[in-house]
Amino acid sequence: MVSPRGSPVPHRQDRTDPFQQRGAPSPRSHDDLTLWPGHTADMSFRVPGPGLGKMKLDSAQSSLDQEEAEEAEDRQLLEPAAWRAYMERRTALREFLTSDLSPHLLRRHHGRMELLQKCSFHIEILPKHLALGDQNPLVLPSTMLQLIDPWKFQRMKKVGTAQTKIQLLLLGDLLEQLDRGRAELGALLESPDPRPFLAGWGLVARRLAELSAVMDSFLAMMVPGRLHMKHRLVSDIGATKIPHIRLMLSTKMPVMFDRKGSVAHQDWASLRWFVTIQPAAPEQFELRFKLLDPRTQQESTQCGTIPVAACAFDIHNLLPNRSYRFTVKRAESYTLVYEPWRDSLTLQTRPGPPEGPSPSRLGKPGLPLTTLSER
């Protein structure tokens, strides 16, 4: 068949999928089909009567005919070569938004970012060059830490704190750029007129390259990097050869309360917490508690900080039928540079008789807590 312009009209089977013409992603699963009105993933439905079934089939057919008519109308706006270029570029843009910059991927990166903001950042000391099989005890991090000038190390901790804050701010900015970029390109994909799309394709291609670079920067910055030093931290000690060292920023997963395992009783509370990735060495924690809305001066003393060497603890001599806020975090360590977040939990003790025990001793651990903390 030949069109009025003398160019052959493509066969019906070469026409673009109606899903693609309307700017929607091609359905790849049952869930995708159910998201779009007028389409159903289950074609084996029961028809209660011939009239209703014929009406549904006629409605579906009219919808397809309308989309094909709109496609033909859009095709008449462009020459065949321009139309093919439009469809190819539109498909490339859709694939980028559904794979490299999909909503699922962005939600995952937002979750990783939220987790990173809750982590604690530490300085890790490593030898710069270590020969294979070198048994020199001076290259061990614990030994090298003793040789580092304390004043210089404190300065490096301040540098590490600043570098961590900048890194988190940059990560948040990069993630916002990815969100904005996807919204802009998605709106362009929904544009009904193909001519502005083709005219501005140069800017679109440049935007795709920019967003790809932003994604690469985001992924690279998600891993804490090397801490830059201007001066040597270890001075020469006699004839002993001290290896050069490098400082790296490392992260530790946040400490979080076990909200199912933490329970408040009448005058005491049993608290449990955990770390997603258990460290190789035991850790020290700092547990704080505070009575909310104290009514007397004596009740204002219902607060304190307790060092704990386990992942469970019992706090006794609490007031009945009152609300307490508990917080937990890692204890301050020599290598800690930044820990902006700590988990908090509010529990209310059970009601009891008006004559409650006077607070005398706080923070008595139960006997089985050592076993529980080793899980």
Automatic annotation (TrEMBL):
Question: Which InterPro entries does the UniProt entry name for this protein?
Answer: DUF5581_C (IPR048317), DUF5581_N (IPR049231), FN3_sf (IPR036116), FNDC11 (IPR039581)
Question: Region entry Disordered: which residue ranges?
Answer: 1-74, 347-375
Sequence ranges assigned to domain DUF5581 in this UniProt record: 79-247, 252-356
In terms of PANTHER family, this protein maps to: FIBRONECTIN TYPE III DOMAIN-CONTAINING PROTEIN 11 (PTHR14537)
Which protein are we looking at?
A: Fibronectin type III domain-containing protein 11 isoform X1
Q: Which organism is it from?
A: Mustela putorius furo (European domestic ferret)
